[in-house]
């Protein structure tokens, strides 16, 4: 009688894999209870760097489908977004964030720092006649005017309000010096000596007198601790003027460094302005916000191209010539493309007639330019205190 075949023992079932965070049995690459991934976060540095690029900048193949229409097709990306074709392009906020940070980082590396006069100057302070004061004043104003002209149409244009404020400070200091010299002449006494202590301070006045932390401090309607804080900030900014005189690039870095933060605040405000301008279009605020993000992303991209053209011109045509002329034409065309692009974008997205579009474009542009100037000045003042 044959023996029955010997059966191999049944294999032991594999232990059930459980989430290391909450202990629930796993059914896939992520825990369905707490959401923790099965793969640990202790991975090679290259993988983590890729995660940062993907989560923060979302840099993948979509960037190559996004940048060309962003630059060359006004309103195209916005209309694609409204039509529901969104996943094929970089999202509006990530596009704006990446281009803005990159553009003004490149601007800090490539632009030279101008020397800005924030108050009194040696020539005006040492002048002993009215004619000498006027000569020194006119020379400083001409220098600032030349500097302002060179900023127009570039990323450094955000510093124009600071240049204008410096010019106004020069006029005020010159007027004070002229008044002091005329009073001395009328009294028959020698011209007053230059105020050497004021050369590295802000030209701040309170109660028609020069600000002084002890003798003439700010005294507002705010509580005492707030006034003390304000006076401390004015003193700190005043002391930082000495650093700015020794390191002019610090002013450029403060101005350009303030722009991204300023734009992050102003983009929602610009979207609100669009909402008011196109109130009867009955569009959601988020739609106007997408328009604002795409328009600011384009401006950052265009400024980045202008900076790159300037770098190429300095590298390939440092001595001028036909190649330098070509680069100058390209830069001019890029600058001219900015207002034309924004006008075409507004027309195509909101689909109104040309007269109404042009009117709203002019009003929005003027109001936003004024708002941007004040915002940049405020950011520069904060940066001057915080540096």
What do you see in this structure?
This protein is 65% helix and 1% strand. With 387 residues, the chain is an all-alpha fold. Among the domains are: 122-246, no CATH class; 250-386, no CATH class. Strands 1-2 form a two-stranded antiparallel sheet. The N and C termini lie far apart (99 Å). The model is unreliable at 115-120 and 196-200 (pLDDT under 50).
Strands in their spatial order, largest beta sheet: 1-2
Pick out the low-confidence regions. Answer: 115-120, 196-200
Label the structural class: mainly alpha
| Cα end-to-end separation | 99 Å
Mean pLDDT score, rounded?
A: 79
Total number of beta strands: 2
Helicity level: 55-70%
Strand content: under 5%
Radius of gyration from the CA trace?
Answer: 30 Å
Number of helical segments with 4 or more residues: 12
Keywords: Membrane, Transmembrane, Transmembrane helix
InterPro entries: DUF3667
Transmembrane segments: 93-111, 254-277, 289-316, 322-344, 365-386
Pfam families: DUF3667
Architecture blueprint of SSEs:
Blueprint: H1 45-57, H2 62-72, H3 76-82, H4 92-110, H5 122-126, H6 130-151, H7 160-187, E1 205-206, E2 209-210, H8 224-246, H9 249-277, H10 285-316, H11 322-350, H12 354-386
Antiparallel strand pairs: 1-2
Transmembrane segments: 93-111, 254-277, 289-316, 322-344, 365-386
Organism: Thermomonas fusca
Keywords: Membrane, Transmembrane, Transmembrane helix
Task: Spell out the key features of this protein.
single chain, two-stranded antiparallel ribbon, mainly alpha, 12 helices, 387 residues
Quick description:
The chain is an all-alpha fold. The protein is built from 12 helices and 2 strands, in the order αααααααββααααα. The protein has a two-stranded antiparallel sheet with strand order 1-2.
């Amino acid at each position: 009688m044959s023996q029955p075949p010997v059966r191999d023992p049944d294999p032991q079932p594999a232990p059930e894999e459980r989430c290391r965070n909450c202990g629930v049995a796993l059914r896939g690459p992520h825990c369905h209870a707490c959401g923790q991934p099965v793969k640990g976060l202790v991975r090679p540095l290259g993988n983590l760097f890729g995660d940062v690029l993907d989560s923060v900048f979302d840099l993948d193949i979509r960037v190559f489908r996004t940048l060309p229409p962003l630059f060359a097709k006004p309103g195209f990306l916005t209309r694609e977004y409204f039509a529901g074709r969104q996943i094929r392009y970089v999202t509006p906020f990530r596009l704006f964030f990446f281009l803005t940070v990159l553009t003004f980082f490149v601007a800090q590396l490539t632009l030279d720092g101008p020397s800005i006069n924030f108050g009194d100057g040696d020539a005006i302070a040492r002048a002993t006649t009215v004619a000498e004061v006027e000569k020194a004043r006119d020379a400083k104003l001409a220098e600032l005017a030349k500097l302002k002209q060179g900023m127009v149409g570039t990323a450094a244009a955000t510093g124009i309000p600071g240049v204008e404020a410096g010019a106004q400070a020069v006029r005020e200091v010159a007027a004070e010096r002229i008044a002091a010299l005329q009073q001395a002449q009328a009294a028959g006494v020698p011209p007053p000596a230059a105020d050497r202590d004021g050369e590295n301070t802000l030209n701040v006045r309170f109660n028609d007198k020069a600000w002084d932390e002890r003798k003439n401090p700010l005294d507002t309607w705010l509580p005492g601790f707030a006034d003390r804080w304000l006076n401390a900030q004015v003193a700190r900014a005043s002391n930082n003027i000495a650093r700015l005189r020794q390191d002019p690039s610090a002013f450029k870095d403060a101005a350009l460094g303030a722009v991204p933060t300023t734009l992050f605040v102003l983009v929602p405000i610009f979207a609100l302005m669009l909402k008011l301008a196109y109130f009867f279009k009955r569009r959601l605020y988020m739609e106007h916000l997408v328009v604002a993000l795409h328009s600011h992303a384009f401006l950052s991209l265009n400024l980045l191209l202008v900076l790159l053209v300037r770098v190429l011109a300095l590298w390939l045509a440092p001595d001028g010539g036909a190649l330098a002329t070509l680069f100058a034409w390209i830069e001019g065309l890029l600058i001219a493309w900015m207002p034309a692009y924004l006008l075409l974008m507004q027309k195509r997205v909101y689909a109104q007639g040309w007269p109404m579009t042009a009117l709203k474009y002019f009003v929005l542009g003027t109001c936003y330019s004024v708002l941007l100037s004040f915002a940049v000045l405020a950011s520069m003042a904060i940066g001057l205190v915080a540096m």
